[in-house]
UniProtKB/TrEMBL annotation:
Family: Belongs to the class-III pyridoxal-phosphate-dependent aminotransferase family.
Alphabetized GO MF terms: transaminase activity
SUPFAM superfamilies named among the record's database cross-references: PLP-dependent transferases
Protein known as: Aspartate aminotransferase family protein
InterPro entries according to UniProt: Aminotrans_3 (IPR005814), Aminotrans_3_PPA_site (IPR049704), PyrdxlP-dep_Trfase (IPR015424), PyrdxlP-dep_Trfase_major (IPR015421), PyrdxlP-dep_Trfase_small (IPR015422)
Gene3D superfamilies in the cross-refs: Aspartate Aminotransferase, domain 1 (3.90.1150.10), Type I PLP-dependent aspartate aminotransferase-like (Major domain) (3.40.640.10)
Organism per entry: Siccirubricoccus soli
Key words, A-Z: Aminotransferase, Pyridoxal phosphate, Transferase
Keyword Plastid set for record: no
Cofactor(s) this protein cannot do without: pyridoxal 5'-phosphate
Length: 442
């Protein structure tokens, strides 16, 4: 064997890391070697308590034997099969399991491989729906400031995080945005849904007046915005969006990639927040992140308009090589069985009051300007250092990791979302470590 082809241990050069400060990391690497239960472990064996369920996705905890064995078994039976004009049984079973959990009347499931693909798929389905109904003028897509819908061109265009957009030009045409719901003084340090701000949904009426209802295809929002720093919808806000969408024949899309599969103490955020969308995206917790998989669920009427109303042949010219991948489908079935058998939503509901009080106990820490929570999610917002936005929270992130707790930061906001198997001692350790790190970074 040529020496140049030998493995090169600890070579960090080749991997261009996503959403990372590559230069800093490769000079100061923090590595994860394995995971089990509530914790990661470094290659040296040091425990890192997971306060973020990976990236909002390992809801059942790490290293679950049931999921691992399902993947291994499926790999020995059928490693891959296409789903273009063909099928394999396990994909249909996985779709049926999802349909049992979605809101009533949302029984059709389209498989993707990630939340980003789910977002773009949902937007394309919305456009196809209106075209199938003879309303081809409905091409405009409405998102929300500070919304995150992945990194595909559709989701990024409808999304409203400036840092994710500024390198890539104009993106899709015919897109507009609602204002975000964050920052009202009356809502600072709110526990659960804040009281003020339902009126912000009325901005959709302004966009209808500006563009014409006949041009608007869909509105996409997260029930609780996660990646932008945990923005919890004010009471009545989503209900008002639903009313306006119904009034003008606009489809309402919920991005449930983070809020799905127990994170808010219910199967989906739609259930917790009392609003049923027309289209719902999901990923992350669907397979406990063991194999990449996403999905889009739609109301039966949306499916019927596109599929049953089409001429013979392909009804929707969209899909992915790995849609319904056998290993991912096996992981999804095993994950959803754990979800049911262990009542992960119920565990989240039971822990939520303790989680809420623990998160809000950090109000006394220096530079904390707001704390928000819903289900087993919390956001802790810090004052930015002058001329160095994000630096304070990043220092807290690094200190927490070095002290044995994984958190996530976005700007100067600490975002928390532990696995749903979390217990009170884990909560105490997470919040205590954060409190110490905030004080050290003051």
């Amino acid at each position: 064997m040529n020496e140049s082809s030998l493995p090169r241990p600890n070579n960090l050069d080749a991997f261009w890391m996503p959403f990372s400060d590559n230069r800093y990391f490769k000079a100061n690497p923090r590595m994860i070697g394995r995971a089990e239960g509530m914790s990661y472990y470094t290659p040296e064996g040091r425990e890192i308590l997971d306060g973020t369920a990976g990236l909002w996705c390992c809801n059942a905890g790490h290293g679950r034997r049931e999921i691992k064995e399902a993947i291994q078994k499926q790999a020995a039976i059928l490693d891959y099969a296409p789903t273009f004009q063909l099928g394999h049984p396990i994909a249909f079973e996985a779709a049926a399991r999802i349909a049992e959990m979605t809101p009533e009347g949302m029984d059709k499931v389209f498989f993707t491989n990630s939340g980003s693909e789910s977002a773009d798929t949902a937007l394309k389905i919305a456009l196809a729906y209106h075209k199938a109904r003879g309303e081809s003028s409905r091409v405009r897509l409405i998102g929300r400031e500070r919304g995150y819908h992945g990194v595909g061109f559709g989701g990024m265009s409808v999304g409203g995080i400036g840092g994710n957009r500024k390198q890539f030009g104009a993106l899709l045409p015919y897109v507009d945005h609602l204002p975000h719901t964050h920052g009202l003084k009356e809502n600072l340090f709110a526990k659960g849904q804040p009281e003020q701000g339902a009126h912000l949904a009325d901005a959709l009426e302004n966009l209808v007046a500006l563009h014409g209802a006949e041009t608007i295809a869909a509105v996409m929002v997260e029930p609780v915005a996660g990646s932008t720093g945990v923005l919890v919808p004010p009471k009545g806000y989503l209900q008002r969006l639903r009313e306006i969408c119904d009034k003008y024949g606009i489809l309402l899309i919920f991005d449930e990639v983070i809020t799905g599969f127990g994170r808010l103490g219910t199967n989906f955020g739609a259930e917790r927040l009392g609003v049923v969308p027309d289209i719902m995206t999901m990923a992350k917790g669907l397979t406990n992140a063991a194999v990449p998989m996403g999905a889009v669920a739609v109301k039966n009427g949306v499916f019927d308009a596109i599929v049953n109303g089409a001429p013979a042949g392909i009804e929707l010219f969209h899909g992915y090589t790995y849609s319904g991948h056998p290993l991912a489908a096996a992981a999804a079935i095993a994950t959803l069985e754990l979800h049911r058998a262990e009542d992960l939503p119920g565990r989240a509901r039971a822990l939520e009051p303790y989680w809420q009080e623990a998160a809000h106990s950090l109000r006394a820490a220096p530079h904390v300007v707001d704390i928000r929570d819903c289900g087993l999610i919390a956001g802790i917002e810090l004052v930015s250092r002058p001329g160095a936005a994000g630096a304070r929270a990043m220092e807290v992130f690094r200190r927490c990791f070095d002290d044995g707790v994984l958190i996530r930061v976005t700007g100067d906001i600490i975002a928390l979302s532990p696995p749903l198997i979390c217990e009170k001692p884990h909560v105490d350790r997470i919040m205590g470590t954060i409190d110490k790190a905030i004080r050290a970074a003051a």
